[in-house]
Structure formats: structure tokens, C-alpha cells
Write a structure and sequence with these properties.
4-stranded parallel β-sheet, binds pyridoxal-5'-phosphate, about 425 residues, alpha/beta, binds zinc ion, Rossmann fold
Length: about 425
């Protein structure tokens, strides 16, 4: 039974030590609320849109870190933005699965952090717990998000649980993803052009007072509370490795909220003396665009590129986020551009090892193929963040299962074709 006291919507501010929002570019600080999603006002005066993060009055002792990585992010409440009571659906606590050693090309330990086992089958649940909590905290009448899939579904689901109306602006989707987005009783509408989508989103924010739950600016700035939820992936990896840090973490990159969040989580673990060094963050981008790779190479905060078509629709973008630059630079990491063929091969290979991943997700496993040549894995284990399950891909359902009449002859014919 839900009592008024436990209904989603009560913000358990008491447990969080979040103090303010801070610009990643100029360092200017702002009060914790309202969340500044469209970029730092101070940098805006210089003509640059910069993302913000949350700063904390960190507890002195490391007691906030639990002993075991169980699901439910409220366990990490002191180091997260204020979370709404009873909103968690047991997100996080996902398995860290060791890739079979005989299938690893090199002399190192390789692990897959399987985020496909979240409530809506992607890491985006961790972000939306924080973002929907923010929408409730400011008393927004609804939420609006522009998303091609996973973020939209997670936003719809968490808003639904909170009793908030959500408008999800997507692009036309494969049938499985369309049903997935529509499953949560929210308003889902397709607007193919990205810029038109963002203009409409701005209008919904202005006219209806809806809370922005995704990016809607160029360059991207994103919701400052979102990445904070991803810090918990770093905490869990540390605990799951038996209180060790990996040497490097391979992460699929779009606007780098995930990349930055995982980096920041490890940075905090270092700050508390749990680990000696921040692992190298290896950003993985589809080769058709790869703006973060170019931004790092050119020493620019943000670059625009011509991005060709990619099956990795969840992550292929023509502009990078400054968040990614910070994570790569401060972790002494790097960015790898991965081709469509490499992603497809990685998807098949991971499938043969028992895991079905979305193309955008298996890019991290594809990138880890380069570990040996990059000399990685000698100082510690390597981890690939596997963000989402394969059922969301563009080509899902296109290959029919061979149909036979059930006779032994027909079966033998099929078996012969397998060799
Ligand atoms: C959103 C998404 C990512 C990347 O997340 P960013 O934080 O935007 O970089 C990676 N993989 C999948 C499957 C996603 O949906
Ligand atoms: Zn700024």
C-alpha cells in the first residue's frame, strides 16, 4: 500500500550532501535549484554553452560506500543529488561479468559491466532517477525529453512512476522500440528533424513549465543532475572487482554524460583514498562522425563534424559535449573511432559468448579488441560498459527463423548447412 508519506514525490533532501551546481568550463557556482540544463549563464555571456555538474559537502569518512553493490541507487544517497522517496525501481547493482578468459585476445582480465539488466534495459535508468527527482523537487507539472530511444523510455518510465506526465520527442523508431517507448502511458511523438525537435522542446518548457529531462542546445550541455547517477557505475565496478580499480574503462560515447559520470565516480573513489589512480577512460565513438576524438586531437572544447549514417543510432552525433573532454583529459584517457563493421563483428562475437547487446552498446567491446595493441591490461583489469540490450536495434526482426516441416531429413539438411 502506498501511503501519502511514501508516495513518489517526497524529496529526501536530508541524506544528500549536494550543495550547488558548478560550471565545468569556468567554475562559476549556482544554487542547487533550479537545475541549469541550457548551459552556464556566465559562459553564455562569452558566447559558449557549457555544461554544469553538482558539487557536494563531501562527508569526511568513506562510510557512505556500502560493502556490496546491491541494486537501488538510494544506497549512495549522500553522494547523489537529492532523490525522491520511493522512486527507485532497483536500478543499478548490475552484474560485472568476466569475459571467458579463453576468448580474450591477450594476457589480461576483461569484464563486461552489463547495464542491459536495468529496469528499462539500459544505464539511462540511473540518470532518470536523478533527473525525475529534480523535476519533482522544483514542482514541475510535467517533463519533456528528446531522445532516440533508451533515454526516452527510461524518462517515460520513471516519470510514470512519479505520477508525472512526460512528453517524449523521438525520431521514427523500429517497431520494438516504438512499443517500448509507448509502454509507460506517456505522450510519445516523432519529430524527425533534431533541431525542430529541440525548438519544440524549448516551447514546451516555456509554455507549459515542463522540466527539461534531456539536452536541447548546441553544443550539448545536458541536465546537471543526470551524470551524477552514473557515478554509481564506478562505485559498483570498484566493489565488484574486490575493491580494485580497473586500469581502463571502455565507454560508448554520445554526449558523454555516461563517460563523465563514470570518470567522476572514480575521481571520488580516489579522493577518499579507495583507489590510487583514476582509470583511463577510453571513449568509444562510431567512426562515421567521432566529434569527441577530433575535439581531443585539436585541443578544442567542442567541434562539429559531418556524421554519416550509423546503425549505432543511440550514440552517433555530429557534435561532442565538453563533458567528454573533461573526462578524457583528466583521466589521461583517449577516444577510439570504431567502424560499423567492427561493431557488427563485436555484436556477433559477444552473442557467441552469451550476451546480446545493442550495436551502440557493443562498441565498447569492439574497442577493447585494440587493448593489446595499445598496451593496456598489464596493470589491472579492463572493463567494457555494456549499455543496452540488442532488442532495440534497427535491424531487429529482419532475419526470419528457418522453418522446417519437423522431419528428420529436413533437420539433418539444416545441420549440414551449419557446418
Ligand atoms: C545514451 C546511450 C549511450 C551514451 O550515453 P551518453 O551519456 O549520451 O554519452 C550509450 N549507449 C546507449 C545504448 C545509449 O542509449
Ligand atoms: Zn561557465
Amino acid at each position: 500500500m502506498t501511503t501519502p508519506e511514501t508516495a513518489p514525490g517526497r524529496i529526501a533532501t536530508g541524506q544528500s550532501t549536494a550543495r550547488a551546481q558548478r560550471c565545468l568550463f569556468c567554475g562559476a557556482e549556482y544554487p542547487l535549484y533550479p537545475p541549469i540544463v541550457a548551459g552556464c549563464p556566465n559562459c553564455e555571456r562569452e558566447g559558449f554553452k557549457a555544461p554544469l555538474e553538482i558539487v557536494y559537502d563531501y562527508p569526511e569518512s568513506g562510510d557512505w560506500l556500502p560493502d556490496s553493490p546491491l541494486p537501488g541507487l538510494t544506497r549512495y544517497a549522500p553522494l547523489l543529488p537529492p532523490l525522491a522517496d520511493n522512486l527507485s525501481m532497483g536500478e543499478g547493482g548490475t552484474p560485472l561479468v568476466q569475459h571467458p578468459p579463453h576468448l580474450v585476445d591477450g594476457d589480461f582480465e576483461l569484464y563486461i559491466k552489463d547495464e542491459s539488466r536495468n529496469p528499462t534495459w539500459s544505464h539511462k535508468d540511473r540518470l532518470n532517477l536523478c533527473v525525475v527527482s529534480a523535476a519533482l523537487a522544483v514542482g514541475a507539472p510535467g517533463m519533456v525529453a528528446a531522445s532516440s530511444g533508451n533515454h526516452g523510455a527510461a524518462a517515460a518510465a520513471y516519470a510514470a512512476r512519479a505520477g508525472l506526465h512526460a512528453v517524449i520527442l523521438c525520431t521514427p523508431r523500429p517497431p520494438a522500440v516504438a512499443s517500448f517507448l509507448q509502454a509507460y502511458g506517456q505522450t510519445v511523438v516523432a519529430v524527425p528533424d533534431v533541431l525542430t525537435r529541440w525548438t519544440l522542446m524549448q516551447r514546451i518548457i516555456d509554455e507549459l513549465g515542463y522540466h527539461p529531462a534531456s539536452n536541447f542546445t548546441t553544443p550539448p550541455t545536458n541536465h546537471p543532475f543526470g551524470s551524477e547517477g552514473y557515478k554509481t557505475i564506478a562505485y559498483e565496478i570498484y566493489l565488484q572487482l574486490g575493491r580494485r580499480a580497473p586500469e581502463a574503462v571502455f565507454i560508448p560515447v554520445s554526449y558523454a554524460e555516461l563517460t563523465f559520470g563514470v570518470f567522476k565516480g572514480f575521481k571520488e573513489l580516489k579522493q577518499y583514498g579507495f583507489i590510487p589512480e583514476i582509470p583511463h577512460i577510453i571513449g568509444c565513438e562510431p567512426a562515421v562522425g567521432a566529434p569527441l576524438k577530433r575535439a581531443i586531437a585539436e585541443g578544442q572544447p567542442v567541434v562539429h563534424v559531418d556524421a554519416g549514417p550509423s546503425d549505432a543510432y543511440a550514440i552517433a552525433v555530429p557534435v561532442n559535449s565538453y563533458r567528454g573532454v573533461v573526462a578524457i583529459r583528466e583521466s589521461e584517457g583517449l577516444v577510439l573511432a570504431i567502424t560499423e563493421e567492427e561493431m557488427k563483428a563485436a555484436q556477433a562475437e559477444l552473442g557467441r559468448a552469451g550476451m546480446w547487446g545493442e550495436i551502440s552498446s557493443v562498441i565498447s567491446f569492439a574497442a577493447a579488441k585494440q587493448a593489446k595493441s595499445l598496451g593496456l591490461g598489464k596493470k589491472g583489469p579492463l572493463v567494457c560498459v555494456h549499455t543496452s540490450s540488442g532488442f532495440k536495434d534497427i535491424h531487429v526482426g529482419e532475419t526470419p527463423i528457418p522453418l522446417i516441416d519437423g522431419s528428420w531429413d529436413a533437420f539433418q539438411e539444416l545441420m549440414a548447412a551449419r557446418q
